[in-house]
Design a protein that fits this description.
heterodimer, A: alpha+beta, Uridine Diphospho-n-acetylenolpyruvylglucosamine Reductase, domain 3, Double Stranded RNA Binding Domain, 7-stranded antiparallel β-sheet, 5-stranded antiparallel β-sheet, about 15% strand, B: alpha/beta, Glycerol-3-phosphate (1)-acyltransferase, 9-stranded mixed β-sheet, 28 helices, GPAT/DHAPAT_C (chain B), transmembrane helix (chain B), membrane (chain B), GPAT/DHAPAT_LPLAT (chain B)
Chain lengths: ~750, ~700
């Protein structure tokens, strides 16, 4: 039987890599096929081993019997009848596989919380039939591989659209992002509907759902931290409007001619109220707050779901023809008011949702690139590439929901940029549809001297010039080994000095982040309930060692979290180098667990904001980049400014004002600020919030910080653009806009 | 424009801190437990560690490199020099020395003063500020006492002891200099023009202390003791340094605390007068200080120290300074402050000096001195030295008391005591300056050189006599000057009304503006606030019924019946200054030759004035004050009527005689008491226009 599987696998790979192989010269086709198949398998094994190693927290270990046996339980009806599965099921199922290391699947063994792969999926897993389920999923993957290119034996694949008929409908349940987002996501909060924090009847915090490592767990320390930090009280609730009231949504202003012609193209669209509301907002605090109160402003009049580049070309043509305003929509994770419909817009507004353009069109192993439709969300992209043994390594904190096109349009940054680079480093080729036509480069040369790089008109254009439809991205073989780590510093100053030194020596791990004392405490409050007395005893010992023996002041110490990637030997060597530097700045290694929890925080913090809003606490984060010599000053001043402004504006309880350094560069760092306050008793909390954030941004700019490191400008930070890039700079941007989109079809009015 | 009524200004109550000293042991007080709270709870830093921080700073490194490049000297060599500069400069605050001072000063203060009154609410505000932000203390400077007194007060209230910028001249007194150093003074050279290294070390030293919040930094905005009791034009150097950490984002904020110290009787009273008259001030020496022991036997009344509202530099700079201007060059590279920052610091400095002025406590004697001086000059004009009857003086004083209160003066007039008693007790404290015979008071004419001037040869000629008389007059003037800031703006308006040929508001404003501009080196007049000052003056005069502003076709300003007294008083406040500037102009147009240098200016103009005074052609003895002469010259330089040229002799003055002459004309005209029938002289004077602008 194993032979069969091997053969099947080989087969799937070869067809999968068809495009690439066609391009290959010099190697016999068979030889290449074989080579590819083997290497892929090898990598697959390696990867599984690595994960197992990290999961058990012991280090490199042979894969457990469960994993090894997987291919052997291979038979099931689905496998026998590949046709019964739509083409993309396999891909999606791969995601389900990646989500296996959830606590449910692994019992009490600590499991890795790794972005994209383990963090979330749509599938629900139940403890009992795990083994069977895993097996089934693996089969589905294989089936998918087998079946996927069936009938697509030409190189035209990339240009073709997916079927829009019954097949895709059948598969919509399996997609991470369905057309109807409301099926799985909250309409007035962050993320999946089934995942949220709440205080249970006993007043203990818990996280619902089954998607995350923290799901289903009790977080005993959160209540005390929450009440102590914000002066909040569980008795004082500020619940959200539970249901979206469609009658609150203004009826759409439709451009009939446009709609008629759109119908004839066959591109799916909707003017359903829910669909439209979902595309009218990002995740700024004022947006979410309004939704929670059931207040709905101007929303798009129509939502359209192109399935491929050509669909987009058609839509843009029609929009130009009928003078309709287009607002591209990717993952909807904007925090810059970029998705807000301009109130002055009188034309019909069409939201162009790219979420259904989510295929990897080809992978080129020779050049290590992948050509991907821009609507794919981060977790799917990583998951699908992982299946082939690759990754992009681009992991922005929003990667569960944010899309490739969105990253390009906002100049996104991922937490592992130290190894993989930011989006501008990752992109090799971009295709964008504009009212003037399609812009793309003629080749995939890794660097060109052909005047200013036209990619840089696209990167960061925030949907003002067109829609990014396809992107060729660099890919890397998946890392063989991953290791988390953490270092405790006696104070923030020392921590920053250490990060600076690490950057100077250019030995930054995949990720290195420094949390200030407040965040350290926050992270601590998020520790799930410990089942074993031994663990809590150990924690106690650690605490005593650090605070008593080493003399760290618990109110000043701070922690850096680390993530190392690469081959095992190098990781260990690298780890030693970094810990040695840390020691010079008084840093003490504080274990993998702390590090891991730090990264987990990144993903749950957005959920936590919703919890806060249930109890009169409003919060937001914002970021900047700043030269090294300014890091400490900017942290201190912005935090102080927030506190100061809150006081000035009548906020009764001192707000949470905290920061962390999340990225290091040769010449500076990226700093993230978190700000939350208790708004009970304020008549217009959003206004207070906005004033404080405005003041904080002014403070950032006055302290030599940038307007944004990766969130973008949107409409929220527009007012500072001219001082940021100078008037001439604005003029340059405007002249590009005037040429590319003279009628302001892409009328979201972001940037300037 | 709406004006806040200065009368409504709320001020704190005072507590006498000597009272406790009189009732409990000074020794125990000096040895008590002293545990001040520092900024954000930082631990204090030893003087040595502080020096190291400074020498290792990026700024010093940079400047050392720069100097080395420019001069070709070895880096080590320059480093050594920097270290030596720091050694010469740095304080070495020691608690034991502070305790010594606490003990001795308690003894001294109790002997000299009746009370030292401090507003305790101000102390509380200061305490709060010290914990939250780096703090700069900005006391007014009228006496050597000032900074010892400040440290004494802070020690008493358990506040962090300040480090104090002191002039190098103190270092002349070997022992005392070191004592002061150990009580927190650090010493800066009076001038270090082009010395980059010195500037770098100095500014870095101050900034390091400030940024880290090791101690409040204290310095005198006015730069030196005011010999005239008028606030001096603020010096910007140290304020620039103090604001720099905020402007460059190194601290969240810096709080500036103006402190107003008012002495009922100034220790250096006669010393100052003599200095202004050209008797050089004795070099500070330890032995000189001991000679001053004589002062211990005198009664110096009380001291009032008012800690003003802390001023946040952050708030002050809001909308005025773009801190982003430091974004493009490394912050440790020294840069000349931009125009924007310069004018911000300048405005702030004026504002702070104004804040000092406003909280300066005025004693009844200040009003009496004003009245007595006016009377004195009246007497001189009429040639009869009669003095003032006590009851007349009392009546006028009460009138002036009410007027000054309406103008917002911080007057400490004991209202529960009958006015005649207030007057007589005030007079008795200053009896050295007066002669009281047959119920009439006048300035002492036969005064033997004031309390601190023994051993002078008996008067030999009219010149000596004149100078001796002048010592008394200038001493009195220094008290009158304490109230000048209260009357200044109304006085400028009164003079403008008086001088303007019509009562149109615009014309009066032009005339006001000319005067204000002319005197902006003499008084604290915030740059660019002409309109505001004018409106304030109008508001006050209208409020007190001295003027009416009728709004027919043109806005007209009319003097009311009862306003004449007020206006007469107010114009006579400015008269001596008008005459002083005028005579300086006269001197420059008549006597100045090609070779006149800045250095020679004061002695020669003084000779000129003495001649004219003796000839009876000048009314005001106080124009002998070198302060006034220098200010007049500065104004003329500013207006371009006189130019400094780089001749053979540095600082040679080149006089534009036409311009000086017409300025003099303008001033004469203001000064003349009968309104001449000249028409539109002001408006037709092109120079006036230039000056107004």
């Amino acid at each position: 039987m194993e032979n069969v599987v091997q053969r099947l696998l080989k087969c799937s790979t070869s067809t999968f890599f068809q495009l690439h192989i066609v391009n290959c010269t010099g190697l016999g086709e068979e030889g290449v096929k074989a080579a590819v198949a083997t290497s892929r398998l090898e990598r697959g094994k390696l990867r599984r081993r690595t994960r197992a190693a990290v999961e058990t927290g012991v280090g490199h270990r042979e894969p457990g019997p469960r994993t090894r046996r997987c291919p052997q339980i291979a038979f099931c009806p689905a496998f026998c009848d590949p046709d019964s599965l739509p083409p993309r099921v396999g891909w999606i199922a791969a995601g389900a596989l990646a989500s296996i290391p959830t606590p449910a699947a692994h019992g009490s063994a600590p499991s890795i919380h790794k972005h994209g792969s383990s963090m979330a999926s749509n599938s629900s897993s139940s403890g009992g039939s795990d083994r069977q389920r895993i097996a089934q999923q693996r089969l589905r993957i294989i089936a998918g591989h087998l079946q996927r290119p069936a009938g697509d034996d030409s190189a035209l694949l990339a240009a073709e659209c997916k079927d829009q008929g019954s097949k895709s409908d059948a598969s919509s349940e399996e997609k991470t992002v369905p057309r109807r987002r409301q099926e799985i996501m909250k309409w007035n909060g962050w993320g999946y509907s089934d995942s949220r924090f709440l205080f249970n009847k006993k007043g203990q915090a818990e996280f619902t759902g089954k998607r995350y490592k923290l799901s289903g767990m009790i977080i005993p320390g959160l209540k005390e931290w929450f009440e102590g930090t914000f002066g909040a009280n569980l008795q004082h609730k500020s619940p959200a409007t539970p249901i979206l009231n469609s009658s609150a949504v203004r009826p759409p202003t439709l451009n009939e001619a446009f709609v008629e012609e759109l119908k004839s193209t066959g591109v799916p669209f909707s003017h359903d109220a829910e669909d439209r509301v979902f595309r009218a907002y990002g995740h700024c605090v004022h947006e979410i707050f309004a939704l929670r109160e059931g207040r709905i402003g101007r929303v798009p009049d129509l939502v359209v779901w192109p399935n491929c580049h050509n669909d987009v070309v058609k839509i843009v043509e029609l929009a130009c023809k009928h003078n309709v305003c287009l607002i591209p929509y990717g993952g909807g994770t904007s925090v810059s008011s970029a998705l807000e419909c301009p109130s002055e817009e009188t034309r019909s507004i069409v939201s162009l949702d790219t979420s259904q353009m989510n295929r990897i069109l080809w992978i080129d192993e020779k050049n290590l690139t992948a050509h991907v439709e821009a609507g794919i969300v981060g977790q799917d992209l990583e998951r699908l590439l992982n299946e082939s043994g690759y990754c992009t390594g681009h992991e922005p904190d929003s990667m569960e929901f944010s899309s490739l096109g969105g990253w390009v349009a906002t100049r996104a940054s991922g937490m592992k940029k130290n190894i993989y680079g930011n989006i501008e480093d990752l992109v090799v080729h971009i295709k964008m549809v504009t009212p003037r036509g399609v812009i793309e480069k003629s080749c995939q040369g890794p660097r060109m001297s052909t005047g200013p790089d036209v990619h840089h008109f696209i990167l960061g254009s925030e949907g003002t010039l067109g829609v990014v439809t396809e992107v060729t991205m660099k890919i890397r073989p998946m890392p063989e080994y991953q290791k988390y780590g953490s270092v405790v510093f006696p104070n923030f100053e020392q921590g920053v000095a250490c990060l600076r030194e690490v950057a100077k020596q250019r030995c930054a791990p995949a990720s290195i982040r420094l949390m200030d004392n407040e965040q350290f405490k926050f992270g601590h409050a998020l520790k799930p309930q410990v089942s074993s007395i031994f663990t809590s005893f150990l924690d106690g010992l650690k605490k005593i060692y650090i605070t008593k023996f080493k003399g760290f002041d618990p109110n000043r110490l701070c922690v850096a979290t680390l993530l190392f990637e690469g081959n095992r030997e190098k990781v260990l060597q690298h780890e030693k180098q970094v810990y040695d530097i840390a020691a010079k700045f008084g840093g003490l290694a504080a274990g993998e667990d702390n590090g891991q929890r730090g990264y987990m925080l990144t993903f749950v913090i957005a959920y936590l904001r919703d919890l806060g809003m249930d109890y009169y606490v409003m919060g937001e984060s914002f970021e900047t980049s700043v030269p090294w010599d300014r890091v400490l000053d900017i942290c201190q001043n912005v935090k102080a400014r927030i506190v100061h402004e809150c006081k000035e504006r009548g906020v009764q309880f001192t707000p949470l004002s905290t920061c962390r350094v999340t990225q290091t560069y040769d010449a500076g760092a990226c700093v993230y600020f978190y700000f939350g306050f208790n708004y009970r008793g304020l008549s217009d909390p959003v206004h207070v919030y906005e004033q404080v954030e405005h003041a904080a941004r002014e403070e950032i700019l006055a302290n030599g910080g940038s307007l944004s490191h990766h969130h973008g400008v949107g409409k929220l930070r527009k007012e500072w653009m001219s001082e940021t890039v100078s008037n001439v700079g604005i003029g340059m941007l405007k002249s590009v806009k005037d040429y590319v989109d003279p009628n302001n079809i892409f009328g979201n009015r972001n940037l300037f | 424009m709406q004006h806040r009524d200065p009368m409504l200004q709320k001020r704190d109550e005072f507590e006498d801190m000597l009272e406790e000293r009189r009732n409990s042991s000074d020794l125990r007080y000096a040895l008590r437990c002293y545990t001040p709270v520092l900024y954000k709870g930082v631990t204090p830093c030893t003087a040595g560690a502080l020096k190291n921080m400074v020498l290792q700073s990026a700024q010093i490194h940079f400047v050392i490199g720069q100097v080395s490049n420019e001069t070709g000297r070895a880096v080590d060599d320059i480093q050594e020099e920097a270290s030596a500069i720091l050694e010469e400069m740095a304080h070495s605050l020691q608690l034991s020395t502070v305790r010594f001072f606490a003990f001795t000063l308690s003894k001294v203060f109790k002997t000299l003063f009746r009370s030292i009154c401090v507003n305790e609410e101000g102390i509380q505000r200061l305490q709060q500020a010290i914990q939250e932000h780096p703090v700069v203390l900005l006391p007014s400077h009228r006496s050597y006492m000032d900074f010892l007194l400040m440290s004494y007060i802070l020690y008493t209230y358990d506040l962090a002891l300040p480090v104090i910028a002191a002039g190098m001249d103190f270092m002349g007194m070997k022992f005392v200099g070191e004592m002061l150093r150990m009580s927190g003074a650090f010493f800066i050279r009076r001038s270090f023009g082009g010395d980059k290294l010195y500037w770098a070390v100095f500014s870095e030293y101050v900034k390091t202390m400030l940024k880290n919040g090791f101690a409040p930094v204290e310095f005198f905005l006015e730069g030196t003791r005011s010999r005239t009791s008028k606030s001096l034009t603020p010096k910007l150097g140290l304020l620039n340094i103090a604001m720099d950490p905020f402007l460059k984002g190194e601290v969240f904020d810096v709080h500036l605390v103006p402190v107003s110290i008012s002495y009922e009787r100034i220790l250096e009273e006669a010393l100052y007068a003599r200095e202004l008259l050209g008797v050089p001030k004795p070099k500070e020496s330890t032995s000189g200080l001991f000679k001053a022991r004589k002062v211990l036997s005198e009664d110096y009344g009380s001291i009032h120290v008012y800690f003003g509202q802390p001023v946040s530099v952050r708030r002050l700079s809001q909308g005025k300074v773009d801190r982003g201007q430091f974004n493009l060059t490394p912050r440790h590279i020294p840069k000349r402050p931009s125009e924007e920052i310069h004018s911000f610091v300048n405005d702030s400095a004026y504002g702070l000096v104004r804040a000092q002025e406003e909280n300066m406590v005025l004693k009844p004697w200040v009003l009496l001195a004003s009245l007595l001086l006016q009377n004195h000059h009246g007497d001189q004009a009429s040639g009869r030295a009669r003095g003032m009857a006590l009851d007349e003086l009392t009546e006028q004083a009460v009138w002036l008391r009410d007027l000054s209160r309406q103008y917002g003066a911080f007057l400490h007039w004991p209202d529960h005591v009958p006015p005649p008693e207030v007057v007589s007790s005030s007079l008795s404290l200053h009896r050295g300056l007066l002669t009281i015979t047959e119920g009439r008071v006048q300035l002492a004419s036969e005064q033997a050189g004031g309390p601190a001037g023994p051993g002078e040869p008996p008067p030999v000629g009219p010149e000596e006599e004149l100078l001796r008389q002048a010592v008394t007059v200038l001493s009195c003037v220094s008290y009158r000057n304490q109230a000048l800031h209260v009357f200044l703006r109304p006085a400028l308006l009164a003079s403008a009304v008086h001088a303007a040929s019509s009562s149109g508001k615009q014309e009066i404003f032009n005339s006001f503006s000319f005067l204000r501009n002319m005197f902006s080196n003499e008084f604290i007049l915030c740059p660019g606030a002409t309109v505001q000052d004018f409106e304030e003056a109008c508001f006050l005069l209208v409020k007190t019924g001295a003027l009416q502003v009728s709004q027919q076709e043109v806005v007209e300003v009319v003097v009311t019946e009862r306003g004449h007294r007020t206006l007469a008083f107010l114009t006579s406040v400015l008269d001596p200054f008008l005459q002083g500037y005028q005579v300086v102009c006269r001197f420059l147009s008549e006597e100045a030759n090609e070779a006149l240098t800045e250095k020679q200016f004061v002695p020669t103009v003084r000779k000129f004035i003495i001649k004219r005074l003796l000839a009876g052609r000048l009314r005001y003895t106080e124009v002998l004050s070198s302060d006034l002469q220098k200010n007049a010259l500065a104004a003329l330089l500013r207006l371009g009527a006189v130019r400094k040229i780089k001749g053979a002799e540095p600082g040679t003055l080149k006089v534009n005689k036409v311009m000086v002459h017409s300025l003099e004309d303008a001033l004469v005209w203001w000064d003349s008491h009968e309104l001449p029938g000249l028409d539109n002289k002001i408006n037709n004077n092109p120079l006036m226009d230039a000056a107004v602008k």
